[in-house]
Design goal:
The protein is an alpha/beta fold and about 210 residues long. It has a single domain, classed as Alpha/Beta hydrolase fold, catalytic domain (Rossmann fold, 3-Layer(aba) Sandwich). The chain contains five helices and eight strands.
Length: about 210
C-alpha cells in the first residue's frame, strides 16, 4: 500500500491471523489505532479488498495507524469460516493485540460491518471506540447489532444508492429504529465502482470532525 505498511502475524482463537499495519506519514501526530474488517470470506473478501484499502488510506491520512487483517480461513489466516461468530472473536483478538490501550477506531465493509457491530457491542461498556465507520452494512443478510446510543455521534454509516448486494432499504430498516443517520452515495454500487475517492473523502471528513 505504501512504504509504511508492515506485515503482521498475530495469534488468533483459530490459529495465526494474517494482518498488515499501515502507518501515517512520518512526523504526523498519531491519533490511535483503527482496525478494519473485510467483506464476506466465502465471496472473495480479503483485507486487500479495494474498499478496505480505501478505508485504510482515509485513516492513515488522518493520523491513525490502520490495521487490516484476514478472517479465519482467508489467505494465511488459520481456521475455517464461522458465519460471523468466530470472526467476531478474531476481530476482538486483533484489537487486544494491536491496540491494548489508547484511542481506538473500528471500521468494516459489508460482512465486515456486521462483525464490527458485534465487536462494538462486546467492547463498548469496557472501552468506548472513538470513531466508527460502517460501509455497505450487510443488514439484509445478517443480524447486524444495534449501536450504543453514545456511539451514534462517533459513527458514519455509508451506503450506495444502487447497492444490489445489500438493498438500501434493508440498511434503513436497521437504522430507522435507532434514529441512526445513513449517508447515501447517489448511484453508488456495493463496491463503489468509480466512487472510491468520494468514499474516502466522506470518511476523512468524519475522522476530522
Amino acid at each position: 500500500m505504501n512504504s509504511s505498511t508492515h506485515q503482521l502475524s498475530l495469534a488468533g482463537p483459530a490459529g495465526a491471523i494474517e494482518a498488515v499495519r499501515d502507518e501515517p506519514a512520518p512526523g504526523q501526530p498519531a491519533r490511535g489505532v483503527a482496525v478494519i474488517a473485510h467483506p464476506h470470506p466465502l465471496f472473495g473478501g480479503t483485507m486487500d479488498n479495494k474498499v478496505v484499502q480505501t478505508l485504510a488510506r482515509a485513516f492513515t491520512q488522518c493520523g491513525w495507524s490502520a490495521v487490516r487483517f484476514n478472517f479465519r480461513g482467508v489467505g494465511a489466516s488459520a481456521g475455517v469460516h464461522d458465519e460471523g461468530h468466530g470472526e467476531t472473536d478474531d476481530l476482538l483478538e486483533v484489537l487486544r493485540q494491536v491496540a491494548p490501550t489508547g484511542p481506538l477506531a473500528l471500521a468494516g465493509f459489508s460482512f465486515g460491518s456486521f462483525v464490527a457491530s458485534r465487536a462494538l457491542a462486546a467492547l463498548w461498556d469496557a472501552r468506548p471506540v472513538e470513531k466508527i465507520v460502517l460501509v455497505g452494512t450487510a443488514a439484509a443478510r445478517f443480524d447486524v447489532a444495534g449501536l450504543p446510543l453514545d456511539a451514534h455521534p462517533r459513527t458514519l454509516v455509508i451506503h450506495g444508492e444502487q447497492d444490489d448486494t445489500v438493498p438500501l432499504s434493508a440498511v434503513f430498516d436497521w437504522a430507522r429504529p435507532q434514529s441512526l443517520p445513513v449517508t447515501v452515495i447517489p448511484g453508488g454500487s456495493h463496491f463503489f465502482h468509480g466512487q472510491l475517492p468520494l468514499l474516502k473523502n466522506l470518511v476523512v471528513r468524519h475522522l476530522q470532525s
